[in-house]
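Can't attach files on this board, so I'm pasting raw text. These are the components:
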Amino acid sequence: MTSTLTAPLTSRTSSTRLDFEALYRSARDDVYAYVATLLRDRSAAEDVTAAAFERAYRKQRLFKAARGSERAWLFGIARNAALDELRRRKRAAALTAEPADIDAALPEDSAEAALRRAAVRAALATLEPRERELIALKFHAGLSNAEIATVVGVSVSNAGTQLHRAMTKLREAVEHA
Amino acid sequence: MPDLSPDVERELEALDDALAGRRVAPDLTELGELALLLREDRPQPTDGYGRYLDTRVERGFPGKDPRTRASGRRWFTWQGWMAPALGVAATGLLVAVIAIAGPSGGDESGGGGAMSAGATETGAAAAADSARSRSGEDAAGGGASSLAAPESVPPAPSPGSPGTDGRERRKIERSASLTLAARPRNIDAVSAQVQDVTRQQGGFVVSSTVSSSTDGGGGTFELRIPTRNLDAAMAALSRLGAVRERSQRSQDITAQSVSARSRLKDAKTERQSLLKQLADAVTVQETESIRARLRLVSAEIERARAEVRRVNNRAAFSTVVVTLVADRSAGASGAEDDGSWTPGDAAHDALRVLEVIAGIALITAAIAIPLALLGLVGALTLRFTRRRRREHALDAV
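---
Top answer:
Structure tokens for the assembled complex are below.
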């Protein structure tokens, strides 16, 4: 996807400490991917992603570099927005997951690659939400282990341990798929 | 990652190497391929959604986003600047409340003559009674009975009762007490002013006690002021220092006046009768008996006259007890101020202002700090609860 941002945003944000434009450009698709994996709902993921960027835009003056990277700060906001959505769904008792959208195969896939991809998706679906979230933060959002630790509120070593455990379960699930 | 086992650390590094395009150890090739597959298979937003979001960002998120049904938008959003603003507003409100309610302690320096809020009628009555009992009732009359001990006062009849002899002839006894504060070095000057005012108002000093020193001093004055000048005298005395307490009392003594005049009239009537009997007396024994009776009646007349004078004097003159106390913080009054504002006065005033500011700040802190701590605990509790609920939502998927 090609960004379509124009000059006004640059002039608006040039005076802030946080370069919101750059952060948005670099993280838009990553945030969407993370939220979509967490929620497993494309429509909800779009809404939550928009809400997360809006919150970040309005709170950009509260960003403190000493507390972590810009991406970790942004994904923390996205995580809260996604969890709020999960809570709202729980209250509404109407979970409307759209696994078909998420599971759509890429057109250029070969048969073997498509099978492999389907196996991974199926294995991913068997993971616990927290494990799936770590996978999404690592491989879909591209965060470092330190940034993951900041987002989920654990130590770096704990984040690494949890990620390794999730990957082990995923590998086992893929092998048995 | 010092807490991780070597194998775990090695596999995590292999994941990072694979994602970064670096070579992965042969035994971890499968893990690297899985990492790449996961990254390639991540959900992608549609172009339409991307353009929509770009436009929202470009415009600075104007208005409400019709699509953000999941945004959890609240009617109120806490902004970073609100905390200090709220603190400043609360402190300002607190200071205003203290400033409005604070100075009502009776410390009305400046000698403006305002009546102290702490003055009580009971205390004033006690002071006036005490002053009257000490002074004697006929100090102004100069009669032989001026040293007579105070008698018990019968209760006055209520206004308009049959016992009174008309409103225009009512006898009202008034008394007052006044406590003034002055700086130690001004005690003597104020004492002299008290006597001057008394003399100017047609009164006199019954008794006075004055002591002065560099560190303190004070005095007590018992004055008799013509009742018609009492209000003017009180106003003039109030201007001599900072009024700390002021009270006035009045009592209807019409019944006592009527009683005294009646006794005098009866005695005079009896004397006239005795004089007639004396003129008609024939025997020596009869004459001596009447003369003895006349001596008793004459004494009774003198006592009745003295009583009438005493009652009239109580109504005509009011007892004013002025208590003068030394106070370094007392402001310069009209009487004690010589018109100059010295550097010492300025320093004293500045110190006083600082004391008041420090006091207000202390009270504000005493109230604001516990409130702030409560607010902090509440905010932390709210934050912890919200975090727990969010985490619980993730567990419940």
